[in-house]
């Protein structure tokens, strides 16, 4: 698997399709502001292999597709939510009930077995979900998003090592710039607030500015990741029918 070529293709796809197309970029920002549902629907179009980057149109379809993709993600999150409730539910129940038994809360320790199980399930979901999204986008069928045997088979045809490396690479390529931007923005905002003695109002202003910056850049990161994962998915060796 040529990871460099795939990353380069995703970069070019995003640059030409979004960065150099201001109208499309603004429409994608609007799609994110609309609770992110139309943007999810747009990502579905990228997952289906549209090239070059498709236009942001047919907003009703984008909303519906985005809602469907959200539902798939929520279903995959349910096991994690259930485990989280079992691990921390009693602690938060005590906190929200106004309990004053500080000794009991201080002695609280999450179940080690459940914690390990939680992280194992989280890793499994992180591995399965990208292919589940792509299978759903390609077939348009909810059941295919949960066809675990087909998902595992697809990852097997990509190559488990190749697939894991691909996920790590895209996480680093997106995560490092985001971390630098966020960390740098926090430093600049904090220093400015202190120098100008802007107080809480100034802090709120910079928080809002940071969120705006994140919204503006999100279409670039989202489309880049979607195109890259589409290439990874398409790299699966085709199934050769038996004679």
| Percentage of residues in DSSP E strands | under 5%
Strand-pairing-aware structural class: mainly alpha
Question: H/E order of the elements?
Answer: HHHHHHHHHH
- Helix count equals 10
Helix fraction?
over 70%
Number of individual domains: 1
Task: Report the strand count.
Answer: 0
- Mean pLDDT equals 88
* Alpha carbon gyration radius: 21 Å
List unreliable stretches of 5+ residues.
Answer: none
Q: The biggest beta sheet, please? A: none
Shape: globular
- For the termini, the CA-CA separation is 28 Å
Structure characterization notes:
The chain is mostly helical and 243 residues long. The chain has one domain. The chain has helices at residues 3-19, 22-33, 37-47, 59-96, 102-106, 112-139, 142-145, 148-158, 160-196, 199-234. It starts with a helix and ends in a 9-residue tail after the last helix.
């Amino acid at each position: 698997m040529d990871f460099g070529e795939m990353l380069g293709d995703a970069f070019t796809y995003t640059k030409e399709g979004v960065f150099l197309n201001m109208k499309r970029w603004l429409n994608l920002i609007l799609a994110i502001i609309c609770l992110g549902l139309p943007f999810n629907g747009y990502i579905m179009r990228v997952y289906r292999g549209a090239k070059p980057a498709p236009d942001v149109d047919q907003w009703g379809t984008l909303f519906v597709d985005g809602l469907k993709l959200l539902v798939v993600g929520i279903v995959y999150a349910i096991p994690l939510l259930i485990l989280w409730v079992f691990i921390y539910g009693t602690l938060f129940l005590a906190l929200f009930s106004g309990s004053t038994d500080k000794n009991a809360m201080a002695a609280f320790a999450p179940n080690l077995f459940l914690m390990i199980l939680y992280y194992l399930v989280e890793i499994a979901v992180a591995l399965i979900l990208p292919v589940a999204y792509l299978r759903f986008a390609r077939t348009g069928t909810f059941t295919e998003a949960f066809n675990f045997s087909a998902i595992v088979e697809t990852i097997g045809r990509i190559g488990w090592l190749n697939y894991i490396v691909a996920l790590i690479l895209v996480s680093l390529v997106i995560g490092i710039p985001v971390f630098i931007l966020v960390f740098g923005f926090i430093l600049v905002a904090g220093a400015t607030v202190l120098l100008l003695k802007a107080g809480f109002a100034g802090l709120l202003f910079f928080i809002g500015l940071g969120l705006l910056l994140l919204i503006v850049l999100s279409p670039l990161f989202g489309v880049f990741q979607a195109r890259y994962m589409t290439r990874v998915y398409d790299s699966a060796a085709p199934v050769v029918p038996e004679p």
